[in-house]
Amino acid sequence: GKTQWTILQDRLINEINKDEDSIRFYFLDSDISIEHYGTKKPINLEEPLIL
Fold first, then answer.
1. Strand locations in the chain, DSSP E?
2. 1-46 confidence digits (pLDDT tens)
3. Residue 27 to residue 42: CA distance in whole angstroms
């Protein structure tokens, strides 16, 4: 079955309006990986930023 974390994550993702809101999950114990859901994808600051 699903873990408590997976259940919580699913509930939070289902609560946001993906056209207007966003949510990020930061996993600090795994080389700081980030999961992003919803609008406005995060900017990758590890790559050059061209405006």
1. 22-27, 33-38
2. 789 999 999 999 999 998 888 999 988 877 778 898 998 766 777 8
3. 15
